[in-house]
Design goal:
Elements (H helix, E strand, L loop, with lengths): L3 H22 L4 H97 L4
Helix pairs in contact: 1-2
């Protein structure tokens, strides 16, 4: 599963480091620096709060999608199972009839082979081949 916490912590710490660098590297008076520090602190706090909310939303979406997927797979499996069962019930009576026809065909072939043998045997006696 996707690990969101390390990703969010990386974004937060990178943002904090960038904000601190900008704050300390800009030449400004003490009053401006404090004002910037307070505003950047509020921005960072808002970013953290939004990141936490986004993480929760992502987690909820993944959970909901997983539940929906499992439900869909369960229903699909039930549908396939009932379709296969219905197909088996539809085919079963015909299968017996087909088996009977195959047995009849085998019997007829055996009779034809026997008649063909008799015909060849009787045909050989009547006319000799050169």
């Amino acid at each position: 599963m996707v690990r969101v916490k390390p990703f969010v912590m990386g974004i937060v710490s990178g943002s904090a480091a960038g904000a601190l660098y900008v704050l300390f590297s800009t030449p400004s008076s003490g009053q401006e620096f404090r004002s910037n520090a307070v505003s950047k602190s509020k921005e960072l706090n808002n970013l953290l709060r939004r990141s936490g909310q986004d993480g929760k939303q992502f987690k909820n979406q993944v959970t909901e999608t997983s539940k929906e997927t499992l439900s869909l797979i369960r229903h699909l499996s039930e549908d396939i199972s009932s379709s296969v069962e219905g197909w088996k019930q539809t085919i079963a009576p015909h299968q017996k009839e087909i088996q009977k026809y195959l047995e009849q065909i085998e019997e007829n072939l055996a009779d034809l082979e026997e008649k063909a043998k008799q015909h060849r045997t009787s045909g050989n006696e009547e006319t000799p081949r050169n």
